[in-house]
Amino acid sequence: MSSKYPEDLLSLIAHLKKLPGVGSRTAERFAFELLGWPQDSLVQLSHTLKEIREKIPPCSTCGCLTDLGKCKFCDLAARDNSSLCILASPRDVYAVEETRSFRGLYHIVEHLLSPLDNRHVSTLRVDRIQERIEKNSVREVIIAFDSTIDADATALYLKSQLARPNLAISRLAFGLPVGSSLEYIDGGTLTRALTGRQNL
Fold first, then answer.
1. Does any domain span residue 2?
2. Distance set, CA 150 to CA 34, 121, 172, 185 (Å)
3. Sign of the CA dihedral with 67 first, then 73, 76, and 79 last
4. 42, 55, 165, 191: least surrounded by Cβ within 10 Å?
């Protein structure tokens, strides 16, 4: 990257590089592409970025993204409250929904366990999960994390904390490629992983 770029352009490139999968060259291309946009399009993008977190806040109950302050995933009249699927990201909810294989409730944990990144058991807020299990008379908990070391450690910890009589705890089938992200798994594979989930 050229050090002769204007400072504001360098700042824009640095921000773009924070996006996943965006390296220096890609960030430069994006930055120069944005410079070619009409001013009204740039203003609209700026306005969207400024307000996106206020307009799409996480649900205080499940952690999924809300639409105009309402969470469709917490609508007990439309969902099966006997099943609770625990996920690591609101993005993963939409991947599961596309399979049409699960109609239960969701719960998003803020972080996976990772002592090296200072993410310990307190960040999981297991008490909130236990409260939802009791309140909704949940009979099955499905842990639907990516297939990574941190995810495995988190799943085992959750199992130990949530275990109780008459509660089945399962995890997505291990047909998922090791190290894979749910975001990039095709619908067919994810459907098979859901239907073939295994007891923990």
1. no
2. 37, 12, 15, 19
3. positive
4. 165
* Residue 13 contacts residue 1 (beta carbons within 8 Å): yes
Residue 150 belongs to some domain of the structure: yes
Here the tokens at position 192 are: 């098979």
Q: H or E element: which one contains 38?
A: none
Question: For the chain, how far is it from start to end, CA to CA, in angstroms?
Answer: 48
Confidence category of residue 176, pLDDT binned at 50, 70, 90: low
Asked whether the predicted pLDDT for residue 195 surpasses 80, the reply is no
Distance CA 176, CA 181 (A): 9
Range of the domain at 194: 72-199
Number of domains in the chain: 2
Cβ atoms of residues 156 and 200 within 8 Å: yes
Q: Which pLDDT tens digit goes with each residue over 80-107?
A: 999 999 999 999 999 999 988 899 999 9
Angle at 77 between CA 76 and CA 81, to 5 degrees: 40
Dist CA 160 CA 55 (whole Å): 36
* Residues 77, 71: Cα–Cα separation, whole Å: 12
Q: What does the pLDDT look like over 133-175, one tens digit per residue?
A: 999 999 999 999 987 888 888 999 999 999 999 999 998 765 5
Name the pTM for this structure: 0.76
